Amino acid sequence: MALKRINKELRDMERDPPTMCSAGPIGEDLFHWQGTIMGPAKTPYAGGVFFVNIHIPTGYPLQPPKVSFSTRIYHPNINSNGSIGLDILRDQWNPALTIPKGKYFHLLLLSICSFLDDPNPDDPLVPKIAHIYKTDRARYEATAREWTRKYASIEMKSLDFAKGLLLLLPGDTSQ
């Protein structure tokens, strides 16, 4: 059941990729994907390229995938291990989500992009960063921008946006 659903998700991602992000299997392992998220414009993450690891359990879709950032990021809802405080990955997971089959990973990536644009400091994984976000937004944005520059900048000479898929690997600056 999991492989059939994963293949459908992969076909859908190739056919209709979400804007400014992509995901796909690493090599031949359909249960281990890498996602690439471009930092949204007009945010402290703009210009950054963020990588996420997606581990799909053999019990998928009855069990949620485990998703974590592999790129360091300064965010109230993403901790130092890369764990993401996104409800559809935690308490709101439901295999019968009203999402058409093949669209879950599309929604997941868009939700993560939205999180970068609009953090939720009222349900933080990192309370200290949430406090700074609420009380000193300029400091929060400056630190997030610095971390983006330091950890999520990739020298890009050329990118292949064929079919909307961003094909980069972490640490690959030889493009």
Task: Explain what this protein looks like in three dimensions.
It holds the Pfam family UQ_con. It comes from Gigaspora margarita. Keywords: ATP-binding, Nucleotide-binding, Transferase, Ubl conjugation pathway. The protein is an alpha+beta fold and 175 residues long. Helix content is 30%, strand content 15%. It contains four helices and four strands; from the N terminus they run H-E-E-E-E-H-H-H. It has a four-stranded antiparallel beta sheet with strand order 1-2-3-4. Strand 1 and strand 2 form a beta hairpin. Helix 3 crosses helix 4. The longest helix is centred in the C-terminal third of the chain and has 15 residues. The protein is globular. About 7% of the residues have low confidence.
